[in-house]
Amino acid sequence: MVFADWIVLFGLCALSLGVGLFFTRRSGREGASGYFTGNRSLPWWAIGLSNTATYQSGNGAFVMLILVFGLAGNWMWWASWIVWMPLVAIIWARMWRRMGIVTTAELITLRYGGKPAAIARRLYAFLLFGYAVIIIAYITGFFAKTVAPLLPLTETQILLLFGGITALYTIFGGLAGVVFTDVVQFGILLAGSLAFFFLTVPQHGGWAAIIHRIQTIRPDGLQQMPPTPLIPALTLAMLVVQGLFFAGSPTAGEGMTAQRFMGAKNEKHAIGGQLFNSFLALSLRTIPLIGLGVVALSLFWTKDLLVQIGPAPAGAKLLADPAHAWGELIRSTRLPPGFIGVLVASEAAAFMSTLSSLINWGSSLVINDFYRPLRPADSPRKQIVVSRLATLLLFIVAAVIAVLFVEGMVSWFLFINSVMVIFILPLSWLRFFWQRFNVWGEISAIVLGLPLSILLWFGLGFQDKPFWQGTGLLFLVSLAVLLGVTLLTPPEKTETLVAFYERCRPPGRWKGIRELARPDTAEGATAAPRTSKLVIDSAIGITACFGLVVATNALFAGDWVRLAAAAAAAGLFGAILIKRIF
Predict the structure, then answer these.
(1) Is domain 3-410 classified as CATH 3.40.50.40?
(2) Which residues contact 366 (CB under 8 A, 6 or more apart)?
């Protein structure tokens, strides 16, 4: 790092802080509710850009994924994302906005009645809060590991610099400050990645030479579609099934994503924001990163590949850890003065956008689902003060965990992200589509999810078996438990279900309740669509997203026929979907 690099880096920090603090006065207009929903004024384009920036906690992960699995490795996340992203836009986005709530945990006391619902709401909020803390700690450790070779700072110093600035603008700006800072940071991380890609390719022989090297040393690396020896068909199938239910995941259609829908100007902005997010997240943001991954594929080998494929070919550099691929690309590329700062700034922008969203979301659970029910008479001014203190406290707790325990957290993060959430995923459908589902089914998912997941994954040794076996069994056990508990316990009261239906207007099996509900008069609300229309729209949306990602991989494989056909399909079905919805 030279002086020019530090100027670029501090420029990013100053810009992020300035944008976030700009929204300080606006964030306090409506108390805690306005603070955590941006006063329900977010436009569709800000929702889409903010959600996409939030998903990208680091750039190096994409490079690592392609180095390990080849181009087909993108399907390790695409397989579920091309399903849940359009489903969330078409089905859930409008319902989260329509209900007028602040957190997804608040849904529980709206959907169910009595003291058990209040208990379930707090249990669920506590579960999500813990999830936010662990992810904050993990992404902080991963970010520090990624940029440590480029910065003469310790992990603690990195956390204090970037995390402290992020916490500051998040505390004062609320959700509006977070969202519009995300917009700026998305532009920074995309521009930085694109510039790095165009600087890297010529220095490694040009694109044709890079592709030729891959075809020589690792021809499977350019395979566009699974299954592959490293991605079996059953694993892919399980990922698709997960995608059908990921609307209930804290890192997908719930949590931070749903929080932005709740803050949208109206339902159409919520839907439009998620559709825009689908295009950005599935394709646009990945293009420079996939390109860098392909360059890494032509240059590096890993210890895992020694076991899976064989000795490193002549000229390929052996990496001790595939996570180092992004940093090694930087070292192997001649960069102009100040450009190291640009790259660190783009990685920091990805980290800060995710961190700010997690801090704001986690503290919203503390305030909305614990504090406000106990102190409903507090003034809006006091609510804002307490909200900011809760935001600061969450950051401090997560920072301590990151510094002390993050080295041993990688395996636990993978378990939490891929395994533990499976038990709560069916809630996304059962809550909204089946009126018979009750609070005891909800509580069983919250209480039993973690111990049963630990027992199956670690106690019974499924972490050492193919991915689909453990996750598939957990999913079946979850469905059996949730359905069994619900059918063996009393249904919710009719008046509770009617009140929920009038606020949410969900599709599905609500015939008797629907007849008792008053006509929908919510301002800015759209008519509740028929279930058959949702099914057709969902199929169109998934097809459009499938075409989008196929075209993205085809671009880097040089498969121009597939690229043209897939891009045309994505454009056609995308246009049809937009016309049907808007």
Answers:
(1) no
(2) 125, 129, 390, 393, 394
